[in-house]
């Protein structure tokens, strides 16, 4: 009879392609013959003992495959004992290597790196871990902090930590206090700023704070290649390049050029329509003129494409940039200026990795809008840096005439300030401006409302996008994409299986440097044949199959998070009550539009969201305090 280990082993032998010729029936026969001894007998490597069960040829292949995959098999056995899904085996092996099974037998709570506390704790208890085992108590503390990571926090107050730990260990506050003390003693948690931080966040935020303090206090640095650029030289460049009929800069943009070329560290901050892109191009031009090498990077692929189009300089994703650094393809030094656009999207781990790769003397300019959505990952960087008084900062506030004509910057500014903007209540057609249309189902938006709004704006086009707070729900991206797919491709040929039709908008969901595609790359279908999808992204045609095809989805509608870093001529934004709907999400959605923005749906939910606290302000992090307490150089 199969026990839990037997079920895991039979499934492993039958499903792992390494065990050629072993299917469910033969795997079950092997277990019937050898039972709990099967892993040991396989490890002995005597093919003869298996030949009468699976035949000589398959028996020989079986023992060879087991020897080559024994570490994987040992993990499967442990997962069976602990009643875990054996599909975790590959990730466990990648994380901890050939000794993973032994490690987990000794320290089962390490599996919290891949599974939630409740699941791991139940398995550990089944394996005999006592309720008051110190390892269990420390793991309870770590579990609370991991869950906080899931909510993007890097810091927790003492009362909340004690209460949440107590809830995990049967409500005993005294034991929870002991658990926190044990975690402190083991270095799993650190006291910081009146509360607690997990070790990783404490280390990363501390490093970032110290490093930024050092950069900001370093003063001008240079060498024979990149000597400090003087005020006289900058003023001369501005007279030559910013006073003619071509490039026209306002006073704040001029100050941004000075900061970008002279300061070791700086922030260029501003909302939509205030000329950040114009200022950024001027910074790049001036830096290049004065001997600097400029690297333009952004978290999202689409943001990198936009930055390159706007400035005329190459741009890449942060992931690609880090890859080139690690391979030695590029090097950083005092002559280099690194510019991160859409910096509000960058989370703590990514920014930490960036700083670790940047030598002191290399310049850094972060460009962004702190009213936009905070990072998807944990921590908060740009928003905290904007509030740091020791970092040079230029804030652009003047709305430029062309942008002002659309009304979008004015509406965005009101939302940013937490006040309800004045918007049209009707849409006359494909025009400029911002409107709010009430939903037809007791104020709620329906799919028909979305279709009608798109039609009123001139119909679907490649330079339009529907931006949603969520994927799910009646007017989430999933429902809208399926609706427009059926509506706009009715009667057309569709690709078997995937269902795409020629002309449909698509989005790629993975960074793939082999293809030159990034997570969030937008394109459209140009054709298909059998199991190959032909699609064009940013002017380049690709043939997508297999995993590449699996990572390609329709993009009539995308989430606001995915749209961050992009801009479209027209956007339609369905508004429905959801916990994700807040001021920063609506602000980010509105500022994706270049000419026309149509919001539709629940006016009450819209008003409450605009007046609510921005999600970035609800994140509990230690970076701001760490920067305030970091030693000032010199």
From TrEMBL:
UniProt source species: Methylobacterium jeotgali
Protein name: ATP-dependent RecD-like DNA helicase
Positions of the UvrD-like helicase C-terminal domain: 555-600
Start and end residues of each ATP-dependent RecD2 DNA helicase-like helix-hairpin-helix domain: 70-147
Lineage per the UniProt record: Bacteria, Pseudomonadati, Pseudomonadota, Alphaproteobacteria, Hyphomicrobiales
InterPro entries: Coronavir_polyprotein_1ab, P-loop_NTPase, RecD2-like_HHH, UvrD-like_helicase_C
Top-rank lineage group of the source organism: Bacteria
Keywords per UniProt: ATP-binding, Nucleotide-binding
Pfam families for the chain: AAA_30, HHH_RecD2, UvrD_C_2
């Amino acid at each position: 009879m199969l026990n839990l280990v037997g079920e895991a082993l039979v499934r492993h032998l039958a499903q792992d392609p390494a065990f050629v010729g072993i299917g469910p029936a033969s795997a079950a026969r092997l277990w019937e013959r050898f039972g709990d001894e099967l892993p040991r007998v396989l490890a002995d490597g005597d093919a003869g003992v298996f030949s009468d069960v699976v035949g000589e040829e398959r028996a020989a292949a079986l023992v060879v495959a087991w020897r080559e995959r024994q570490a994987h098999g040992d993990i499967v056995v442990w997962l069976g004992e602990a009643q875990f899904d054996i599909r975790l085996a590959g990730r466990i092996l990648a994380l901890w290597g050939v000794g993973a099974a032994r490690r987990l037998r000794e320290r089962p709570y390490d599996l919290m790196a891949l599974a939630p506390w409740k699941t791991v704790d139940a398995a550990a208890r089944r394996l005999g871990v006592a309720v008051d085992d110190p390892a269990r108590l420390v793991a309870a503390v770590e579990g609370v902090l991991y869950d906080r990571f899931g909510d993007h926090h890097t810091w927790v107050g003492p009362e909340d930590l004690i209460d949440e730990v107590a809830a995990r260990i049967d409500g005993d506050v005294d034991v929870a206090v002991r658990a926190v003390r044990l975690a402190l003693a083991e270095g799993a948690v650190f006291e910081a700023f009146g509360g607690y931080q997990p070790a990783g966040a404490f280390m990363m935020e501390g490093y970032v704070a110290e490093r930024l303090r050092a950069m900001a206090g370093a003063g001008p640095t240079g060498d024979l290649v990149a000597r400090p650029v003087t005020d006289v030289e900058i003023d001369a460049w501005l007279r030559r390049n910013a006073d003619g009929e071509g490039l026209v800069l306002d006073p704040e943009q001029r100050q941004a050029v000075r900061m970008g070329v002279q300061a070791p560290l700086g922030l260029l901050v501003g909302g939509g329509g205030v000329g950040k892109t114009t200022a950024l191009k001027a910074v790049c031009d001036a830096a290049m003129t004065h001997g600097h090498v400029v690297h333009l990077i952004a978290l999202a692929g689409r943001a990198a494409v936009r930055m390159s189009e706007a400035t005329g300089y190459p741009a890449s994703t942060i992931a690609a940039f880090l890859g080139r650094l690690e391979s030695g393809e590029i090097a950083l030094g005092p002559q280099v200026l690194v510019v991160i656009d859409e910096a509000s999207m960058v989370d703590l781990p990514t920014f930490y990795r960036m700083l670790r790769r940047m030598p002191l003397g290399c310049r850094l300019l972060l460009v962004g809008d702190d009213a936009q959505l905070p990072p998807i990952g944990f921590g908060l960087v740009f928003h905290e840096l904007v509030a740091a008084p020791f970092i040079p900062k230029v804030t652009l506030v003047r709305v430029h005439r062309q942008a002002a004509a659309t009304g979008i910057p004015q509406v965005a500014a009101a939302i940013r300030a937490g006040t309800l903007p004045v918007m049209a209540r009707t849409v006359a057609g494909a025009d400029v401006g911002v409107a709010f249309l009430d939903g037809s189902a007791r104020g709620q938006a329906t799919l028909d409302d979305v279709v009608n709004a798109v039609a009123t704006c001139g119909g679907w086009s490649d330079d339009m996008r529907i931006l949603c707070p969520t994927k799910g729900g009646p007017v989430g991206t999933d429902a809208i994409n399926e609706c427009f797919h059926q509506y706009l491709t009715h009667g057309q040929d569709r690709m078997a299986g995937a269902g795409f039709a020629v002309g449909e908008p698509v989005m790629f969901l993975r960074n793939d440097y082999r293809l030159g595609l990034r997570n969030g790359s937008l394109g459209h279908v140009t054709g298909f044949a059998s199991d190959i999808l032909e699609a064009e992204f940013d002017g380049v045609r690709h043939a997508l199959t297999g995993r590449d095809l699996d990572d390609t989805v329709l993009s009539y509608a995308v989430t606001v998070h995915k749209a961050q870093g992009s801009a479209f001529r027209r956007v339609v934004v369905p508004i429905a009550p959801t916990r994700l709907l807040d001021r920063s999400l609506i602000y980010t959605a509105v500022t994706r539009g270049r000419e026309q923005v149509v919001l539709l749906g629940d006016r009450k939910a819209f008003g409450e969201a605009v007046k609510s606290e921005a999600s970035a302000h609800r994140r509990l992090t230690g970076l701001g305090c760490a920067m305030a307490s970091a030693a000032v150089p010199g």
